[in-house]
User: Fold these one by one.
Assistant:
Number 1:
Amino acid sequence: MDRRRDAESDKGELAVAQTKRIDPGARNLNELSKPTERLHVAGAGDDYNEQEAEQTKAAISSVYDMIAATWNLGDLWNWGFHDAKLEAQVEEILPGFTSFGSDGFSELLYFHTLTQIPLGLDAYRDKRVLEVGCGIGAGLNFLSRVTGAAQLSGVDISKAAIARANGRYSRGEQLTYTVGDAENLPFEDGAFDVVVNVESSHSYPSLGRFFDEVARVLKPGGYLSLVDALTDHRADTFAKAMPGCPRLEWLAENDISPQVKAAVRKRMAPDSFVRRTFAQQRMSPVKRTIAQHGLLTALGAPFTGDASMSPVAKWSRKKTGLGVSDKAPVRSYRHYLATRVS
Ligand SMILES: C[S@@+](CC[C@H](N)C(=O)[O-])C[C@H]1O[C@@H](n2cnc3c(N)ncnc32)[C@H](O)[C@@H]1O
């Protein structure tokens, strides 16, 4: 029942997004991936170039507009996290959270990100939480359910993602979604107690500008909890940008690659939720071959080292504009925790 209702609501949102949101000139994923390739391979971002940064952001928002219009493999866009104890903890709070329209791995990545903040779940009742790069909103909705936070705001550069988030999850003043840029957040100074950032920072031309903005919108003593996949170049960018923001004190950095790889492997398994849902979609055999390799790449398969590097896989990755993952492989998946110093 629930799944059918989800599918129907997806179809409606898809039609709206397709007719109103997508720039018809921006359909070639390969073209759109060039600015991201500069970001990950060539080292753009060391010297901030306004024009290049705007091009990168426009390309990224177009890609996510397209994904927001068509994605129906669950409502989260991250590689996930697997840990049986953490899953049992969430199961106590939200029984059955892995049973309907989700395998739960992406929610667990959010839960892990949350539990690294030194606040108990009960402490959120009077707290304001911001998610930067909230995608289509399901992660923040999940956080609202596990914390009961007073107010949660999501911001994302993709208009279609925010339209879908608002259409599906917004709840009056308590849960809101807004279009905006991580490097220029549309919020007042000191508005939030907590900022979460899940698998989004790798797309920002300047991590330094993002950290400055997070420090500005956080209350003194507030927390930033961030997880992301890092190439060698991005790891270097992090190491340089972290000390560059004096209003953020870094409290922890942890490699969570094993838990993320475990989730990706479970998703790649033959009878996984993602594989079964994908198999139900109607498409030609050629499109299926391309889409399947694109999907596995997008879900982090190359990070596990198990992904096929057959000529077909290579060709279809190139076709889908995801070939950048071969040029700039992800080396680790990390969590970072910072607090805003006064
Ligand atoms: C991999 S998705 C993750 C979405 C969500 N956090 C989740 O885990 O489902 C990355 C998100 O970051 C957003 N994003 C990329 N660059 C951004 C920017 N400069 N400002 C705000 N959002 C951005 C994208 O539009 C996309 O929705």
Number 2:
Amino acid sequence: MPTYAYKCRACKVNRDVFHRMAETPEVSCPVCGGPMVKVPCLFNMSRGSSADARRAADQAKRRADMKVELRQDYGVENVSPIGKSDFESVYKDVKASGEAVREQMAASAEKNAAKTAAKQREWKKGAVKRVPKKSRAIAKRQKERAAKDRAIRL
Ligand SMILES: [Zn+2]
């Protein structure tokens, strides 16, 4: 026979009662003698939420698989759905556009590589100019400090 939890609404006392599933006995509170109500079965509640959790996990896995597919087949690294469209509709759009997306991704990768290379060239050029400028400034400061030291001594 299963155990059921009963609770007194008046004094919040809990009590476990054994009875058949089909039975609906009148259970009275050991403290005030009032009627106790059956507490919803925790087993059923947790089963419900684990089904939700499983559904969420399934969806997460499906999305992860889609992301892998988009990356491997089309070179799409990041998908941020715009406006109302969700990830799955973006996925469908990418699949529908197929070759066009692949070309777009390759073009943007090329553009990014060129941009990075240009930035690196600029930085190197700047660095060559920056170094003497910086050492000139240091030399100037040292000279000024030395002049100040002399002035104090005099
Ligand atoms: Zn009571």
